[in-house]
């Protein structure tokens, strides 16, 4: 067993143990997530969502005591995202996977800290959303470089990146027109979870399948691309129907 697989199994064991503790303590739902109507896997993975937020909540409270701001985590997440892209480009998939995990944790902490301190603002919403797009760009450019000599690497990276941007763009355009839509199967949390798992498991799982390194991650990128495209289509239809149902402006 490789050290990377052994480390991943130990981390999963720790996670499952903490899930048991969370369940035994009453499975308290996260009020912050409920206030935003946050979901994971379209609601099917809400136990995992609220467990993970329970797990990182002590880090948020400690960060507030230390005076770490939401902006600190915004840019720390960007740095980890850039590191993930560079690591994947260099073929260090496990390092890239852990960097994706840390980037995702930073993304959670910046919002929780801002809301806890009541310093949410239009600037914060803008910079948080835009930096998220930069992070995904860094990762998929790194993956495209890593898989540049394969048949499907460039297609998988382009499909995943383009579809991911469409999901976010559909939401942004809807909100700019007064229609909020955060639904769909493949949102950013799901994408980050799959990318991190794909990076961490790729080398061992690809080898077990008798395939070259990167095969599993390419399959994950294709899956993200297709399901993100379906999510973007869902949001487009959902928002369009509500805009069409609006009464015409007075006098027209």
What are the salient characteristics of this protein?
252 residues, mainly alpha, Four Helix Bundle (Hemerythrin (Met), subunit A), 9 helices
Summarize the structure.
The chain is 77% helix and 0% strand. The chain has 252 residues and is mostly helical.
Structure notes:
The protein is mostly helical and 252 residues long. The chain has a single domain, classed as CDP-alcohol phosphotransferase transmembrane (TM) domain (Four Helix Bundle (Hemerythrin (Met), subunit A)), CATH 1.20.120. The chain is 77% helix and 0% strand.
Question: What does the secondary structure layout of this molecule look like, with pairings?
Answer:
Blueprint (H helix, E strand, L loop, with lengths): L2 H22 L6 H5 L10 H21 L3 H20 L3 H24 L5 H25 L6 H24 L11 H21 L6 H31 L7
User: Helical region count?
Assistant: 9
Which fold name is given in CATH as the topology? Four Helix Bundle (Hemerythrin (Met), subunit A)
Q: Quote the distance from N terminus to C terminus.
A: 71 Å
> What's the story with the biggest beta sheet?
none
CATH class: Mainly Alpha
Query: Rounded to an integer, what's the Rg over CA atoms?
Result: 19 Å
Mean pLDDT: 87
CATH architectural grouping? Up-down Bundle
Note the overall shape. Answer: globular
Percent in helix: over 70%
Q: Count the strands? A: 0
The class by helix and strand makeup works out as mainly alpha
Helix-strand sequence: HHHHHHHHH
Strand content: under 5%
The total number of structural domains is 1
């Amino acid at each position: 067993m490789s050290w990377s697989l052994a480390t991943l199994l130990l981390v999963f064991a720790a996670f499952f143990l903490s899930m048991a503790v969370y369940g035994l303590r009453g499975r308290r739902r996260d009020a912050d997530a409920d206030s935003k109507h946050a979901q994971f896997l379209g609601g099917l993975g809400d136990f995992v969502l609220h467990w993970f937020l329970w797990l990182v909540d002590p880090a948020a409270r400690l960060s507030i005591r230390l005076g770490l701001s939401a902006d600190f985590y915004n840019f720390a997440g960007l740095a980890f995202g850039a590191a993930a892209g560079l690591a994947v480009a260099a073929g260090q998939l496990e390092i890239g996977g852990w960097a994706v995990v840390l980037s995702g944790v930073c993304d959670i902490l910046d919002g929780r800290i801002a809301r806890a301190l009541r310093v949410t603002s239009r600037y914060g919403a803008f910079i948080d959303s835009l930096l998220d797009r930069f992070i995904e760009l860094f990762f998929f450019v790194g993956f495209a470089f890593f898989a540049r000599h394969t048949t499907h690497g460039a297609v998988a990276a382009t499909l995943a990146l383009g579809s991911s941007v469409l999901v976010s763009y559909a939401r942004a355009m809807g909100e700019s027109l007064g229609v909020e839509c955060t639904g769909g199967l493949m949102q950013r949390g799901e994408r980050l979870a799959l990318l991190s798992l794909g990076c961490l498991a790729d080398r061992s799982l690809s080898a077990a399948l008798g395939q070259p390194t990167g095969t599993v991650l390419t399959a994950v990128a294709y899956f993200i691309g297709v399901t993100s495209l379906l999510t973007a289509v869902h949001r487009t239809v959902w928002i369009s129907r509500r805009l069409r149902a609006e009464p015409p402006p007075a006098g027209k």
